[in-house]
Automatic annotation (TrEMBL):
Protein's name according to its UniProt entry: Glutathione S-transferase
Matching Pfam families: GST_N_2
Top-level division of the source organism's lineage: Bacteria
Keywords of the record: Transferase
UniProt keyword Transferase present: yes
Domain GST N-terminal: 1-81
Organism: Glaciimonas soli
InterPro entries reported for this sequence: Glutathione-S-Trfase_C-like, Glutathione-S-Trfase_C_sf, Glutathione_S-Trfase, Glutathione_S-Trfase_N, Thioredoxin-like_sf
GO molecular function: transferase activity
Family: Belongs to the GST superfamily.
Residues annotated as domain GST C-terminal: 86-207
Residue ranges the record marks as coiled coil: none
């Protein structure tokens, strides 16, 4: 059985949980990370030298990096509805997944650490203001895309890109910040809330 290593409060671990729910994959879960078993021990570093979660063990195959894991599971289980096999369709999905991991994540990181994690290392008011502004700007980019696509991020069909972006949208709504009234993002959030996997692993009270 697939084994997922990482604490269930991690947004990146929850990407994998939700992907499994959409596909219908049973899995075992082991808690690793802050508050649980340390990822700095030799046992974990042998699986992921970066000491980051999540990691999956699929029989004798080990994989880390959450978006790569989600793509792997879609391909393995032949879920071309979640990750198309046609080059252009797949590229569109992967483009938004990569944008989430690089552009959007970098925008909210400082504000999240300051306001949600209460990190003492993130107490610069100028950097906080810049992070909130950038976070809202990037959600605005998503809002424009959703206005154009009409439903989900790449069109009328739900894909694995909506898994990673859906969790990010939930984090934005859950954060104690002032946010613009993006109508398309709000409608998207409600649309995702019709999915059992999102309610269990996304909109479950965990930022």
């Amino acid at each position: 059985m697939l084994k997922i290593l990482g604490k269930s409060t991690s947004i990146n671990v929850r990407k994998v949980f939700w992907t499994c729910a959409e596909i219908g994959i049973p899995f075992e879960h082991e808690d690793w990370g802050t508050g649980f078993r340390s990822t700095q021990v030799a046992e974990f570093l042998a699986l992921n030298p970066s000491a980051l979660i999540p990691v999956i063990k699929d029989d004798d195959f080990v994989l880390w990096e959450s978006n790569a894991i989600c793509r792997y599971l879609c391909v393995k289980h032949q879920r071309t509805d979640l990750l198309p096999d046609a080059p252009k369709g797949r590229a569109e999905v992967e483009k938004w997944m990569d944008w989430q991991a690089t552009e959007l994540n970098n925008a909210w990181r400082y504000a999240f650490m300051a306001l949600v994690r209460n990190s003492a290392a993130h107490n610069d008011p100028h950097q906080l203001a810049n992070s909130i502004e950038s976070w809202n700007k990037h959600i605005g980019i998503l809002d424009q895309q959703l206005q154009a696509s009409g439903m989900f991020v790449t069109g009328s069909n739900f894909t694995v890109a909506d898994v990673v972006l859906g969790l990010s949208v939930h984090r934005w709504f859950a954060a104690p910040i002032q946010r613009p009234a993006y109508a398309a993002v709000s409608a998207y959030y409600q649309l995702l809330s019709e999915r059992a996997g999102f309610m269990q692993y996304g909109r479950n009270g965990i930022p």
